[in-house]
Hints:
Elements: H1 2-81, H2 87-115, E1 122-125, H3 126-143, E2 147-150, E3 157-160, H4 162-182, E4 189-197, E5 200-207, H5 236-247, E6 251-257, E7 260-268
Parallel strand pairs: 2-4
Antiparallel strand pairs: 1-3, 4-5, 5-7, 6-7
Amino acid sequence: MLLKIFLERCQARQNELDSLNKELEKRIKKEVELSKVNYKRFEQQAKMAAMGEMMDAVAHQWKQPLNALSMMSDMMRDDFKNGLITQEYVDELADDAQGQIQHMVTTLQEFRNFFRPRQTEENFGVKRSIQSVMVLVNDEFLQNNIQVDIQSDKEILLYANENEFKHLVLNIINNAKDAFNDNDISERYIYINFYEKDGYKYVDIEDTAGGVPQNIIKDIFKPEVTSKAEGKGTGIGLYMSIQIAQKMGGTLTVKNINKGACFSLKVPL
């Protein structure tokens, strides 16, 4: 009889454990699904924010050549009236116009490549990829008196989704641009260095924008955490950047150094 009671109690406890396990499995499944939904939402927000910033960048990039083409048109009209048009003059003007148009075409092509979906990973040159990003933001950075110095001469290859890497770089340098303006920094430099060391590939992006506030530096990669003024930032960019780094099998860290912050991407060889 005692054995029977013991077995019944054991069975009852086992049933309770089975029920608890099933409930935990349901909760875990629900949390995983919710996490995926939140990730997709953050990813979409990041893409929309990046697209808005890139549209502004393209507008800045096109403004100068459009103004130049307009001036060339006015000059040609006035010089024709004054009888100054020669074949040499026409050839030189045509070459200058083609140069401006080619600049616009290059910018548009880089913009299209930037947002073209790529599911596959491939080997790409880090320096070339960063230079492609700079094509899109160069005029805007010049307007904001920001000098970007790519310090590494030797090219290194990364095996990843190149467009995602470009998004990571763009997020970091755009944050630096905003920090320069928010903190009213006069000396505006961004230094980019990439190298191989101890079995890892590194991409370091350092700025002189004053650094990340100490009260949020530990949480800077969490979603919706930002050092920008209310209404000026969502905190999604750096969250997506660390997701990209992890997808590459690496890490993304930040520390305050010298006159600003240094973001470091570390990927295994």
